[in-house]
Amino acid sequence: MDRLILVATGIAVASLAAFSGCGSVQSEYISKVKKEFAKQPPAPEEILTESDIVHLPAPVQKYLVYAGAVGKSKPQNVRVVFDAQMIQRPGAAPLEAQSEQYNFCGSPARLFFMKASKFLVPFRVLHIYADQKATFVVRIASLFNAVDIAGKDLTTAETVTLLNDMCLFVPGNLIDKRLSWKEIDSLSVQVSMENGPYNVSAILYFNTKGELVNFVSEDRSALQDDGSLRKARWSTPLRDYKEIDGRRIPTYGETIWNYPEGDFTYGRFTLKDIRYNVKAYGEE
After folding, report:
1. How many structural domains does the chain have?
2. Domain that includes residue 231, residue range
3. Would you place residue 21 in the very low, low, confident or very high pLDDT band (cuts 50, 70, 90)?
4. What are phi and psi of 65, to 5 degrees?
5. Which of 94, 157, 162, 175 could pair covalently with 85 via S-S, beta carbons 3.0-4.6 A apart?
6. What is the reported pTM?
């Protein structure tokens, strides 16, 4: 997720506050998640073993062991819930938001829904990445789309987001054959992901404990106020690993545009819930 989400908030006006629906975007999100479950139903689970990860660079192997991925079921999907603070521009007050997403590992898919409000005006955000295509919609007060984009540049950017999710929250899927690796040193590696015509890469940075502490990519673009996409370095430092059901997972992260003119931290995310190999939408 990126500044794309925040551009639309400047369009909202208080006169729309009487319209508090926005259920249509959420309904679309739920429908798409259910369709993805129909396309990628849960299969019998398999255990990730040490032999599955021997081809990975040493820092990645150490990370998978530290994260508790080895000895657990190989991930088929994951549901992640965040509380978030989004910042529209440097110096602006943060906007409180909540998000839910489902990621599917077989045929890479990411379905992301966020809700928030500004000046009592609700807006809803929908990111869909599936079948090697990405779309992005921001709907204001259930009345109109302030942002509605698609295309190759967006799909490239969202492929980076998908790779980021894999590295941070689904390390057991780093054995995916769509990934290629280059070890830089004992604490950093380069990872590349190929999904159809899209090929993106990032540098992963680890600490001596084995924790992944940053993800940096040059292949992502930010939507500007004039509607253009600007390519910029994107980094997501993370910390506060906690053990959840035998897995060590980062529970706090930031999203930063490393612009030449200075860094802009536009998002702060706190993990509220994470579940692997969910059987259906809404499963508790």
Report:
1. 1
2. 4-41+53-276
3. very low
4. -70, -45
5. 94
6. 0.90
- pLDDT tens-digit profile of 197-216? 999 999 999 999 999 999 99
Q: Which residue has the tokens 């090929």?
A: 199
Question: CA 132 to CA 198: how far, in whole Å?
Answer: 8
Q: What is the pLDDT of residue 203?
A: 98
**CATH code, 122:** 2.50.20.10
pLDDT, averaged across the chain: 89
Q: Is residue 214 part of a domain?
A: yes
Q: What is the pLDDT of residues 186-199, one digit of tens each?
A: 999 999 999 999 99
Position 201 in a domain = yes
CB 277 within 8 A of CB 69: no
CB burial of 63-94 (b: ≥16 within 10 Å; e: otherwise) equals bbbbbbbbebebbbbbbbebebbbbbeeeeee
Residue 281 lies in a domain: no
Side-chain-side CA neighbours of 219 within 13 Å: the count stands at: 24
Q: Which two tokens stand for residue 190?
A: 């380069």
In our burial notation (b when 16+ CB lie closer than 10 A, e otherwise), range 117-156 reads bbeebbbbbbbbbbeeebbbbbbbbbeeebbebeeeebbb
Find all residues with CB under 8 Å of 8, minimum gap 6, and list them: 123, 138, 140, 146, 147
Q: What is the C-alpha to C-alpha distance for residues 48 and 24, in angstroms, rounded to an integer? A: 39
Q: Is residue 48 part of a domain?
A: no
| CA distances for 131 relative to 39, 109, 128, 155, 167, angstroms | 11, 7, 10, 10, 20
Closest CA to 208 of 63, 54, 70: 63
